[in-house]
Write a structure and sequence with these properties.
Elements (H helix, E strand, L loop, with lengths): L31 E8 L13 E8 L11 E7 L19 H10 L7 E5 L13 E2 L3 E2 H16 L2 E11 L1 H12 L6 E5 L15 H10 L9 H13 L15 H9 L2 H7 L1 H6 L3 E7 L5 H13 L5 E5 L7 H7 L1 H9 L23 E5 L2 E10 L4 H12 L4 H4 L5 E6 L8 E7 L13 E5 L2 E10 L3 H18 L7 E6 L10 E9 L1
Parallel strand pairs: 3-4, 3-7, 7-8, 8-9, 9-10
Antiparallel strand pairs: 1-2, 2-4, 5-6, 11-16, 12-14, 12-15, 13-14, 13-17, 16-18, 17-18
Length: 515
């Protein structure tokens, strides 16, 4: 299905109280919400327990019940790994609530009317199936393509020529992968912080120590699984399944399984489906936060699309992984689809979230430090890696007397990405030790830091997405406007005497080398 690019036409002015319920609820000029249960034949007969009775949450536009002969475009909105359909209707401030967002957009006549469908793709056994078909993990691609979409087309007045697909994280992956495999079905897609964007993002898994640890961990009792263990298992169940109980995945992990994971990354799926996808390519928009660990992969995928001659709007905004879905629901997602579903040629794209200033002002001090040496533990990975948190937890457990053993009574976290274009970096956690003292044997690496000039930023607050946003703003806002250039492929954080990751109000100094 190919769509011409459109701009938003005038919608209906609506003003009403938003209502929901298990059945359809509706007032004269308000949108309404159906929660329906659909049997999925595609999910029958699996070796793992999957509920074949699946919930679909359907948001109907204001005129749906008053104009019985009218058909409507449809947008399918996919959720991420470990999430559920209800996650797109959150009551938590800052998280997405598409019911509220859509009502506001209709009230302000910002979008044309559409049906929005959120399928529940959660399963307790593996948290999610990557919207792909698996011999043991379930046919989650067919669940969307062969079950959910035909069900909606049969039970609602849909315009099958105007069908959109969107999703966040695993759902963003699903938006791209389903569109590449079934290009005639979708006229527009929007992928938010799409996972598995480039196969290089799985390079770290090729290390024997990573493979061994992942294999051991997922064979433990699930009560002791970390998020990384659940993520690894979901990949294996989706892309490296077998018939061996109780996990039904290929074990132990080896380079063979890593290649299977890579083969299902978006860059390789594009290679596999390039001709058909290019012939019927939908309108494409995708974005990611500047502090998101997926950023490097999606930049590479954007370049691949461009090289293939496939037009796509790619942008970045200040934020971490999927932490701006609420703002995107208000400012981006539905405006994009409205543009491609209505009947007026466009003049401009909707305002990009990347134009919104989401950070406070940055006022560094400039200092020059002589050469020094860090004594630390060392790890390798990308931002958000659970192993980095484990390094800090290990450091806290060593009972170091910071006042006697560490200069400035402070710990250091040092990031070094020199000569590494993969998005991974070496991370050192320790301190600059005082002369004549020793540190625990767990801190068995040293790193010399050259004499340099630094911009020093002070962050006060919790270690969460606020910190990620602050860090991103240094490189995305302050550095380009400062007149300085970065003087080395590293930075480091200096944390004070009472620092812990659990503290809701930490103070950290961030040192960025400049020239």
């Amino acid at each position: 299905m190919k769509l011409t690019k459109y701009l938003i036409a005038s919608g209906l002015l609506v003003s009403a109280i938003i209502t929901t319920g298990c059945a359809s609820t509706q007032k004269d000029d308000a949108l309404s919400v159906d929660k329906v249960i659909m049997h999925s034949a595609s999910l029958e007969g699996n070796v793992i327990p999957i509920n074949t009775e699946r919930e679909l949450i359907v948001v109907l536009p204001p005129s749906y019940h008053s104009e019985p002969n009218k058909t409507y475009p449809v947008v399918y909105l996919l959720h991420g790994l470990g999430a559920k359909a209800e996650g797109w209707f959150s009551a938590v401030e800052g998280e997405p609530n598409i019911e509220v967002a859509l009502q506001k957009l209709y009230n302000e006549q910002q979008i044309s009317e559409m049906i929005v469908v959120v399928p529940n793709s959660y399963n307790k056994f593996a948290l999610g199936g990557w919207y792909s078909n698996s011999a043991s993990g379930g046919n989650w691609e067919d669940y969307i393509i062969k079950d959910a979409i035909p069900y909606i087309d049969e039970h609602y007045r849909t315009d099958v020529e105007k069908r959109g697909l969107a999703g966040g994280s695993m759902g963003g992956y699903g938006a791209f992968s389903l569109a590449m495999k079934h290009p005639k079905m979708f006229g527009a897609i929007y992928a938010l912080s799409a996972a598995l964007g480039d196969s290089s993002g799985r390079d770290y898994m090729s290390r024997e120590d990573v493979l061994s640890e992942a294999s051991i961990n997922i064979q433990k009792n699930k009560d002791y699984w970390t998020w990384t263990d659940s993520y690894n298992y979901s990949l294996a169940l989706s892309f490296a399944p077998n018939e061996t109980a109780p996990l039904y995945v290929q074990l132990p992990f080896s380079q063979t399984q890593v290649e299977l994971f890579k083969d299902n990354s978006l860059d390789r799926l594009l290679e596999d489906h390039l001709d058909a996808f290019k012939k019927d390519a939908p309108a494409i928009k995708f974005d990611v936060g500047t502090g998101d660990y997926l950023k490097t992969e999606l930049r590479l995928f954007s370049k691949q699309l461009k090289k293939a001659g496939i037009e796509a709007a790619y942008s970045e905004y200040l934020g971490g992984h999927s932490d701006k879905l609420g703002l995107l629901a208000e400012h981006e997602i539905f405006q994009f689809f409205s543009m491609y579903f209505t009947d007026t040629l466009p003049t401009t794209l909707p305002d990009s979230l990347s134009q919104l200033d989401l950070t406070s002002s940055l006022k560094p001090t400039i200092v020059t430090l002589p050469e020094f040496e860090i004594t630390a533990s060392k790890n390798y990975g990308r931002a958000g890696n659970a192993q980095f948190m484990a390094q800090w937890n290990q450091l806290f457990s060593l009972n170091i007397d910071r006042q006697k053993q560490c200069k400035n009574n402070a710990y250091l976290g040092f990031s070094d990405w020199a000569n590494d274009a993969s998005g991974n970096f070496h991370y050192f956690v320790g301190c600059e030790k005082n002369k004549g003292v020793s540190l625990p044997e767990e801190l068995n690496e040293t790193k010399r830091v050259p004499t340099n000039k630094y911009a020093v930023f002070t962050y006060k607050g919790p270690i969460n997405n606020e910190y990620s946003n602050f860090f991103s703003a240094i490189y995305q806002q302050w550095l380009p406007a400062s007149g300085y250039q970065q003087a080395g492929e590293y930075n480091f954080e200096l944390s004070g005497e009472n620092f812990t990751y659990e503290d809701e109000s930490v103070e950290i100094s961030i040192y960025v080398p400049i020239k």
